[in-house]
Amino acid sequence: MKENPFNNTSNAFSLRSDKDLKKAHFIFSAMSKPWLVDVGSKATMLALKWRLPVKGLINSTIFQQFCGGTTDEECMPLVGKMFEKGVSSILDYSVEGKENEADFDAVVGKKLTLIHMASENNALPFEVVKPTAIGRFYIWQKMSEQKTLTVVEQLEWERIYNRIDLLCKTAVDNDIALLFDGEESWMQDAADQLVGEMMQKYNHGRAYIYNTVQCYRHDRLDYIMDLYEVAKVNGFLIGAKIVRGAYMEKERERARAYNYSSPICKDKVATDEMYNHVMRYILDRLDVIKLCLGTHNEASTLEAMKFLNEKEVEPNTNDVWFGQLYGMSDNLTFNLAALGFNTFKVLPFGPIEEVMPYLIRRAQENTSVAGQTGRELTLIEQEMKRRGI
Hints:
Blueprint: H1 9-12, H2 18-31, H3 34-49, H4 55-66, H5 72-84, E1 87-93, H6 101-119, E2 126-129, H7 137-144, H8 151-173, E3 177-180, H9 185-202, E4 209-214, H10 220-234, E5 238-243, H11 248-257, H12 268-283, E6 289-294, H13 298-310, E7 320-325, H14 330-338, E8 343-349, H15 352-368, H16 372-387
Parallel strand pairs: 1-8, 2-3, 3-4, 4-5, 5-6, 6-7, 7-8
Helix pairs in contact: 2-16, 3-15, 4-15, 6-8, 7-9, 8-9, 10-12, 12-13
């Protein structure tokens, strides 16, 4: 692999029309300006709050770039087109920030439907769950801090536990893997504990339950090493999705505000090193740990490919998947698929106004990740030049 396979823009943008490419160029150009992202995000949320007629504009720009549609049915033509290129999908009902039991139950209902859908479609090997979408953040936090719950809160926690268990059991019964998203560190210990319990209960013969490991946290290698020892003793498989992380500024601000040591690596270099350490540790133990590499980083992806090659592990092994968010890093996803690796796109969907927090995070992420937007723009411009548009 002397030549970088991720420079092949013909593969990367094979599903994008000339019009799509021009639109993507406009969007990433806008996202290269942090002030514009900041102002635009606030203005958009205000416009939606005041019920101004902006949904059409949002839909034709940032929504179409990063989402599959407003419903799961709207996503399916795109799911089919990507699968023809060897790319699987994870349908992600990206509604966030709910706080009441009826909303939590509605999300669980939606996830159960998606699991059943996935069981009937080879293009959908995983489903994904955000812990705070099915239980109050406050309860997760209180459990993480090991504080005593009130009687009412204890009942609330039992409902959260039962929702998680129902989703896991349904996934196993339908032969679908279930990924749990990682969230803020001050609620994550409870999620790690509960998802670990579900792995021990259900991950026998196959890793059905995956936890997300956010490698911008400097304790995550210790976490995965400890989990590995528990899995060996208790005879279950680990599912691990490793990512760099999505809440860096929030984590640092809270650490400053509450005067505790930040859980986040000191800089980007340290984060990259942590990610690669965790990745190598897992790739050396694929008999026990099954891996999803959630990354938009070419260097880490190339290293993983090299490691698998040296270990003589076939690219299409079910032990390793590569995943990226829809609308980003198509040069990784589609070129990996062309080389025979298991790949997926996380395909968010939901009502436009409900998905805006997700879209704003994507925009902010592209401005904060060094070189991300520039790389996207360079590749888009390269493909536009190749096509002569």
